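Quick one: sequence plus zinc ion SMILES, need structure tokens.
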Amino acid sequence: MPPRSSSWKKVRDAFIKKNPTCAACGGTKSLECHHKLPYHVDPNRELLEDNLMTLCEGPGNCHYVWGHLLNWKAYNPTVVDDTKAFLEKIRKRLTNDLESKE
Ligand SMILES: [Zn+2]
Ligand SMILES: [Zn+2]
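Reply:
Sure thing.
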């Protein structure tokens, strides 16, 4: 397997700058750039923007949960649809107004 590209860090930083929210929870902290198809599966897609997505490593650890299904050696082939559905739920979640007004 060829070594990771030397431009990865640059591509990653630019991608996160351009997509500054987690695709799963909408969070803006501890953002990481996830490969939809991992490097070890297809090294040629390492730097392709359409193979990347922003996921956070915040409280919900969306990167680990949605991107890798709780195993860094695994990946989630339906991560795009899964995170889209989850984000929709987050946006529509009901909160307890009484509690938040205190
Ligand atoms: Zn997240
Ligand atoms: Zn990842």
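Helices lie at 8-18, 62-68, 79-92, 97-101. DSSP finds four helices and two strands in the chain.
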